[in-house]
Amino acid sequence: MRRRAADFRRPVRRRFAYWIWLLLGAFSLAGLVLFFLQHHYREYRVYRPFLERNAKVENSAKRLNFTEEILSVTSFSRQLSEQMVLAKAYVIIAKEHNNLHLAWELSSKIRSCQLLLSKAAMTGDPVTMEEAEPVIKSLSSLIFKAQDVHYDIATTIVMMKSYIQALEERANTATIQSTVFAQLSAEALPKSLHCLNVKLMTDWLKMTSRQKFSHKSRISPQLSDKNLYHFCIFSDNVLATSVVVNSTVINADHPKHLVFHIVTDGIIYGAMKAWFLSNDLKGATVEVQNIEEFHWLNESYSPIVKQLHSPESRAFYFGPYQGVNIEPKLQNPKFVSLLNHLRFYIPEIYPLLEKIVFLDDDVVVQKDLTPLFSLDLHGNVNGAVETCLEAFHRYYKYLNFSNSIISSKFDPQTCGWAFGLNIFDLGAWRKANVTAKYHYWQEQNADGTLWKLGTLPPALLSFYGLTEPLDRRWHVLGLGYDLNIDNRLIESAAVIHFNGNMKPWLKLAIGRYKPLWHRYINQSHPHLQDCATA
Predict the structure, then answer these.
(1) For residue 239, which of 36, 523, 466, 486 has the smallest C-alpha distance?
(2) How confident is the model at residue 154 (pLDDT cuts 50, 70, 90)?
(3) pLDDT tens per residue, range 2-21
(4) Strand order from edge to edge, sheet including 363-365
(5) Which of 8, 113, 149, 494 is an S-S bond match for 367, by CB 3.0 to 4.6 Å?
(6) Which percentage of the chain shows pLDDT scores above 70?
């Protein structure tokens, strides 16, 4: 019997424990549910305003398209905006006639219109008649008042036209003045460079023995050695030329195989000679010539010499400023400098050479340029980087295709190219008689109708069909005007070109690019230190 009673009690205890655990689990689950409900209710209270606002925006977007509303002929929003535009015109006229009270009243009603329109745009509810009617009535009465004091529509149109014309004239004048001032800044020689020229010229006048040596060096065999690499630079800027030469030498694999042919004018000749005689160029050869000793380059042979010496040309460059119709950059003295046109006479200047690289004085060389001499030009005369990847740099941008002489012989969509780094096959040049072509086009443009000024337009005509495109990495342009050239493009370039007004030796140079030029200046030169201090 005892065993049976014990056996009976064990299942009762087990059932009791089971129900206890079940109740505990239910209470725990209820607690968790209550906790989550409270937590989500708090979140709902926090985010409720945002949800309601989003719902409002969505509903308003469904209710009203404000663009369609303001364009609708029957909407009050359209009437308010039209009244507001007319009122703004009368505000200007009222102020011109010193009627400040009327101008203030109109401005007040304009603000009321703006508030109604902005409210409609924000809430998505169209402007109602009750809201718009008082504003439209009061604004209409003010407009009638303006008409009563002779501000009618005809007067409004005349006044607005004269006002717009005056603003345009002021804007044009400001644009021309800024362009002229920028051009003057670009043309002006900094005091430090002028100081350097004076000091170098003084040195040259003292170098009597060096002067005799320089005359003998003109017959050096390196100057015509076809196994060496020849470069020509035509410039009257000593420091700029020194950077071109120095950067080419530093980045060359074999500097002793380089020959530089520099041509300058009679004023800078002594300073240029003194600089290169006093600087180490790692064994490279430098020849400096004076353009005034090129007696063969005269008016009877060269049309450009005749044109530059004509009274009309002298008056254009050196006479009083004639008016706003002349593009300021075309009055840059570089166009009247024969040095700028000397590039078309390279075969005559160097009759014993077969290949030569032309470099402008505003470039910096970053890689060895000797591989240029082994490039296959496929029988062409000029190897150059094309510029039609840039905006509008095609023939029609440089030449007057309304003239039948141009339009009958050239394709306006032909890709332009750049001076600054050019490899010339002088044998092919002589064979194609490019200089004679240049003379022909200069004579055709004696009246300036085919192109304005400069050397690139006649070059595009003279080298037409004779130019071999080079890889763009040989010559990257724009560092004198473009603020946003990709650094990777600059780093990969063999030559970077500071074409434009912001030359690296000027204060208005682009600061980001200045170090690329300054690092090739011989800062240890005593004259540079003295002139910088002065």
Answers:
(1) 523
(2) low
(3) 445 445 455 545 555 555 55
(4) 363-365, 495-497, 475-476
(5) 494
(6) 74
CA distance 478 to 344: 23
| Residue 450, number of CB atoms within 10 A of its CB | 20
**Whole-model pTM?**
0.66
CB 275 within 8 A of CB 205: no
Sign of the alpha-carbon torsion through 282, 285, 291, 292: positive
DSSP string, 302-342: -HHHHHHTSHHHHHHHHS----TTS-GGGG-GGGG-GGGGG
Strand order in the sheet with 421-425: 285-290, 258-264, 229-234, 355-359, 421-425, 382-384, 467-469
Q: What is the b/e burial string over 63-92, where b = at least 16 CB atoms within 10 angstroms of the residue's CB?
A: ebebeebbeeeebbbebbbebbebbebbbe
Taken in order 127, 129, 134, 139, is the CA torsion positive or negative? positive
Q: What does DSSP say about strands 495-497 and 363-365: parallel, antiparallel, or unpaired?
A: antiparallel
Helices (H), 225-286: 238-250, 269-277
Bridge partners of 469, per DSSP, are 384
What 3-state class would DSSP assign to 499? Answer: coil
| Torsion 247-253-254-257 (CA) sign | negative
Instruction: Let me know the angle formed at the C-alpha of 310 by 305 and 314, rounded to the nearest 5 degrees.
Output: 105
Long-range contacts of 396-401 (CB under 8 A, 24+ apart): 398/451, 398/456, 398/457, 398/460, 399/450, 399/451, 399/457, 399/460, 399/461, 400/449, 400/450, 400/451
**Residue recorded with tokens 């689990």:** 25
The DSSP string of 68-90 is HHHH-TT-HHHHHHHHHHHHHHH
Tokens representing residue 78 in the block: 């359209």
Q: Which helix (H) or strand (E) holds 526?
A: helix 526-533
pLDDT at 146 over 90: no
Distance CA 200, CA 388 (A): 42
Per residue in 181-197, pLDDT tens? Answer: 555 555 556 777 888 88
**Alpha-carbon span 496 to 387, nearest angstrom:** 14
Angle at 360 between CA 356 and CA 366, to 5 degrees: 85
Rounded-to-integer distance, Cα 269 and Cα 287, Å? 11
Helix count (H) and strand count (E) of the chain?
Answer: 21, 10
Sign of the four-CA dihedral 164, 165, 166, 172: positive
CA-wise closest residue to 414 among 461, 370, 375, 454: 461
Beta-carbon count within 10 A of 190 CB: 14
Residue 364, beta-bridge partner list: 496
Nearest of 133, 138, 103, 101 to residue 116 by alpha carbon: 133
- Considering only residues 218 and 307, tell me which one the structure prediction assigns the higher pLDDT: 307
